[in-house]
Please model this.
Amino acid sequence: MNATAIRQPLMSANVCIQNIFSEKLSSTTSIKGFFPEPSSPKMISYRNTEKAKELLREFVRRFKSKNNLNQFFIENQLHPQLLFKILYIEAYTNPREYCVLLGHCYQTGLLVGNRCSNSWAFACYLKGAESGCPDSQNIIAHCYENGIEVGKDLDIAFSWYKKAAESGDVDGQLNVAERYRDGFGSQPADQVKAHEYYLKCAQQGNSQAQLMLGINFRYGQGTKIDETASLYWLKLSAENNDEIGQFHLAEAYFEGIGTEIDEEQGFKLFERSAEKGYLMAQRELGHCHRYGRTYEIDCGKALYWYKKAALGGDSEAQCSLALCYSFGFGTNKDVHEAIKLYKSAIENDEAEAEDAMDMLFRI
Model:
């Protein structure tokens, strides 16, 4: 992409942000039947700067905690568009703090109704990003990565992700780690750097990064193999309710990786992960019941978990379920259903499905 193609969207965004803030919006604007008159007691109270900031801070707190925003407006006898004007003014004077919320309003219609504009949203996010807001920086990076309201440019995207990460932002650190892991734009894959950023992110409590550290230490990706460290990070991820972390920790207990074999603990972790919908855990739980790992064989429960995983598209579970229907394990024998499942597994590139279906025809 040439320099002109890169600069043009930024120039448009800067013009756009100027247009937004050049509008003569004021928290004391009067619209008959819509806002209170400027001289009314209610309006006078909102003209007080500290009062306006206090309302905005409370709104942001409730917004972040996903509390009932309608209740907020009722409690304060406040119309959403009046709060938007307060936000608008604060975003102009403090873009690092408020431009990301202003951009969200223009993007989703929050507070602004039918005045949605992706171009104005991008401009607000850009202003926030340039002012050092990590949330805005991650959003701008996402826009460049996917060509949203700007020309697609992976290198510029990566530079914005790194800015967010360098400020200590967890999402930014995770984004950078994942892109070092796979390679991104002109940046080749670098497992050592990916591991470093996963570590920074995991130390702040991110369960996904903790999971990746567990995997890295187990298989020696970007670091030396250390089964004890692997178990430590997988435990943290599982304790943070990450279903994939629970799955890998279960495997560690079943295989004795970094710990003594504890199939009962592994079984419980497979259950927790499976109940959250993780397909591989559902399939492995089916195997546990089918082959009597940990507890006695229970073909009915095996069938239940195989069905869950198979419906989710797990090709190995589809083959296992097909086998149950082929021989009547936990269900009535149903060759036609078995064939359907084998065909689905073949479409999902399951290597053994075609041979298994051929064998079924020879029975």
Q: What stands out?
A: Residues 332 and 360 are 16 Å apart (CA to CA). The longest helix spans residues 3-22.
